[in-house]
Amino acid sequence: MSGLDSALKPRLKRRSTFEYVSWVVCILVGIGVLSSVATNPNFKWDVVAKYFTHESILRGLMLTIFLTVASMALGTLLGLGLAIMRASTVKPIAALAGVYITIFRGTPVLVQLIFWFNLSALYPNLSIGIPFTDIGTAIDTNALMGPITAALIGLTLNEAAYMAEIIRGGFSSVGKGQIEAADSLGMSGAMKMRKVIIPQAMPSIIPATGNQVIGMFKGTSLVSVLGVAELLQSAQLIYARTYETIPLLIVASLWYLVMTMLLSYPQSKLEQKYSHTSARVPRKARKVTLTAPEGIAR
What we know:
Layout: H1 2-8, H2 17-39, H3 45-52, H4 55-86, H5 91-106, H6 109-117, E1 125-129, E2 136-140, H7 141-144, H8 147-172, H9 176-184, H10 189-219, H11 231-242, H12 245-274
Antiparallel strand pairs: 1-2
Helix pairs in contact: 3-12, 4-5, 4-8, 4-10, 4-11, 5-8, 6-8, 8-10, 10-12, 11-12
């Protein structure tokens, strides 16, 4: 039993001289950088403090959060449908999903945003109605596709392609034995997906989805090219008027950093909860008691 207890104890690693020297060098470099940033008057920290909670900056932050939440929610739902289509045994359906994913993952999201914003150049009017009849109505695409609408559509469609691959990877992590067991019970395809595949794929899907949320929050800065008054565009509008370019960019960067850190905490907790394996040895290993089979004395 003593040998088993010693095997469960975490191993102690002796720190080398190089590690201590590295700590000293990193601390000195960090102090030098912080001192330079804090004492350089060109950063204008008083201007940063003045505009950090400015009304227009906070409105832009709220719009950024809205675009992040809405795009991720819609993109995840659409990505789930694409992943199911991609896993379909019907070849045309799987091919259609594959083409969608290839196009939206293979082109820059900035190009997609500009494309959707200028959709009226291709289709000035969209007609909705019953085919082969006169029943219908025409919609002015230029009036419909405003900056926020184009930003939401572009971010959602792009995110759906990435979420489809994440969800498909989660589906692939489900063992074939589980699927065969569901087939042996006579489950339909929809029931098998709902009761067996999706619940067991969640441990692989959720941590990666957390990374996508953080990436989406920072990626919303691209919609500033459409004139959407999100966080970065709000900062740009202010420094275009005051010529305080660097301080306003610092304000936007600090808000992105703060929100990313706030999102990283629950994301790390989800990774710990849903991780299949852990390389970390528990600090306090539970004592294992080996029991002998019945009738054999120890």
